[in-house]
Amino acid sequence: MTTMHNRPWIGMERLSKRRVDAHTPHNLFWIIDPHGSYGLRIQTNTSIDIKEEKIKLKGIQLIRDETGSNTTDLFLILQNNEDWEIFYSLCDDLIRVVLEYFDGKEMINAIELRLKRWQQLLMQDKRSSFSIEQQMGLFSELLCLKNLVVPKVGIHQAITAWNGPSLDKQDFLLDDAVLEVKSYRTSKGDTVSISSMKQLYSDKNSIYLAVYALTASKNGNSIEELSNDIRQLITDNGTSNDLDLFESKLLAYGFAPEIINEELNNFIVDNQRIFSVTDAFPRITPHDVKDPIVSISYSIDLSKCLEFETSLENFLK
């Protein structure tokens, strides 16, 4: 949680600046504008191609200045200093981006991507909650994406196929198969909940169910760590469009650490299993119920589904 000592503008006067304590070839300053508003100044010797009119940050003014000698400045000015906490989170996020890039052009491209993400974040009026059930669901899908789907189809297709935020579709929609991902607390036994008739139903050739047994523990990994791992995979093997799509899907899922109230949980994976959902697999499909029934949910005892369990080697074959 952001605290008062994180407010770097305290003690600064109007029209003043203070260098950000960061090791980077680019110049970073906390600033106070003529009206007393808090701000961040990013200065580089590279031309900034960001189109201010295309990025609308709620409550924040974005200004580009190329009048300096061999330098370009990007200013972010907070319109209401009472909103400093979320603004500080934005600035801190951008500073981390700047630190990752020595090349000015690459840094600016990364900044633009982050600003587009913050544009979506700031459309929300207040901080939100992210329940442990939501965290478990997203954690399992990200783990599945990273460890199961990417090795089989590559990072680009894996990101494209991920439909987790779309509640009316399976979690991964691949060329010839669909994959549904479920998680449950290890302490509650091998039972998963199926929330609709379509989750285990498809016209595609193969349907798989990936299941993760999780325990909340400080010794485990968090959603943020998994997200960063996937971002690195995209950086190494994907494109900026892949990264943009990934960030958009995280937001659609409701995951935005900058606006989440509570501390995120860490999870240990106690067990990972994959099931092949054949015609004999215990499930309820749209063909099994009468037309007037439009929704249904049920639970499956996985301890009684051992005959359908498959290996990682046979997954997506």
Automatic annotation (TrEMBL):
It comes from the Bacteria. InterPro entries: DUF4420. It holds the Pfam family DUF4420. This is PD-(D/E)XK motif protein.
